[in-house]
Amino acid sequence: MKLACIALFLGGLGCSYAQTPAATPPASAAPAAAGRAPAVRSNEDEGVSIDRFLRRPEDQPVHLSHGTLLIQQILGPGDPDHPGAYGQVLQYRKNLATAKLLPGAQTPLETYPDSYFFYVKSGEGRLDDGKQMWDLKDGIAIMVPPSVPHRLVNTSDKPLEMIMLQWTAGPDAKKALIVRNSYALPWCEENAHWNNASHCIFGTADGLVQGERIYTVMLPPWSVSQPHSHPQGMEEVWTKLSPGTIPVLIGSELREMQQNSSYLVPPTGKTDHSNLNLSKDKTEWFLYIARSPVNPNAPPRPQGQGGGFAANPNLSRDTTAATIAGRPLR
């Protein structure tokens, strides 16, 4: 009953219970059809199969990347605007996957033609470019531009577990590794879509194309994000970082989202999405990866101020304190 009620609320239909029937308004009180917003149609009526856009890595075969990384794809390249294989929906990226480096293993020191992003979820290790090194632990984020040598080393007796993203870089890609501690970043957004608070990890200043960004996003206990849709050409992917399972609303249907699973918001302009945190004491965390169509006439994006509130001086997109300098490789 709770989830059904929440789903109706998010769809703008309100909630009623069988034991409390609503009063029937008089005929004279019926609203006129003229001027009313058109009814939101269901996923079935819109021809949107949302299960194509949400997938978990545990259901996929294991492949190799970087020589020794064990990866399981979550979402892969495809056409999100037309029917296709499940999970193959990314318009701008080549691969979103979990990546595991076993204890004592390391990848070769090599270069690759694509850009890579790694987010460390658990374990300990080391990153180096043949000259400098960085320690790896939970919350460390890595931007690897194309043709930059890099090597990952597991220095512990437990797997080094990460989220990995691969894509073709834009013309402004940097020429060196960028390493940041996501936990040391300032908050850059508050009350985005009602309740989201964000750490802005990488953006255009780090070589991404205009409209491209990578954040971690917090959803507080007992809260939901505002349902909204995205237009064609918008690629917004949510990956659940925190343990456990939550419900998510995609269009007219609810689905369960487990740790490490991801969904692309169907870019139909009509399919709303919302993350729901029904726990009263647990915070949910997500990795947010987005690329939006560039509108040269659009005003600058706000920093997520709450409705009607003055600019919050505590918000910042300054990544200086969180950027980790490399040490000479021993």
TrEMBL record:
Superkingdom per UniProt: Bacteria
Biased composition (Low complexity): 24-39
Keyword S-adenosyl-L-methionine: no
Residues spanning the signal sequence: 1-18
Annotated Cupin type-2 domain residues: 100-164
Annotated stretches, region: Disordered: 24-43, 294-330
GO molecular function term, any single one: isomerase activity
Ranges of compositional bias, category Polar residues: 313-322
Entries under Pfam families matching the protein: Cupin_2 (PF07883)
Keywords: Isomerase, Metal-binding, Signal
PANTHER family for the chain: CUPIN TYPE-2 DOMAIN-CONTAINING PROTEIN, OXALATE-BINDING PROTEIN
Record-given protein name: Mannose-6-phosphate isomerase, cupin superfamily
Organism (species): Terriglobus roseus
